[in-house]
Known about the structure:
Layout: E1 2-6, E2 12-21, H1 26-39, E3 44-48, E4 52-55, H2 57-72, E5 76-80, H3 84-92, E6 101-102, H4 105-109
Parallel strand pairs: 2-3, 2-4, 3-5, 5-6
Antiparallel strand pairs: 1-2
Helix pairs in contact: 1-2
Amino acid sequence: MEFDVQYPQDGAAVIRVVGRLNMVAAPQLRELVTATVTEQGRSRVVVDLSDTEFIDSSGLGALIAGLKTARTVGGDLKIAGATSQVTTVLELTNLHRVLRPYATVAECLT
């Protein structure tokens, strides 16, 4: 699992998740989002899932926790580039209603 963080705009951060977002990687993502929002003051977070090959319930939990963290400070967390496996899991759990997937990172930043 690898995370790549970029800061394309003031107040925004893009976290690219590469690999499997499972029970091993989920705590790392949760900590990264929390640090990005609370320590760096970036309340708009985009999680780029275009290179995420797998997500499980722990990964979904990390995304929801990140959403709550961002919304606590008046921001938001959006997901971009969800692969077919990720999209299927979001739909099966009805979380696509809460974490609506966007096609690209650019769409999330507008």
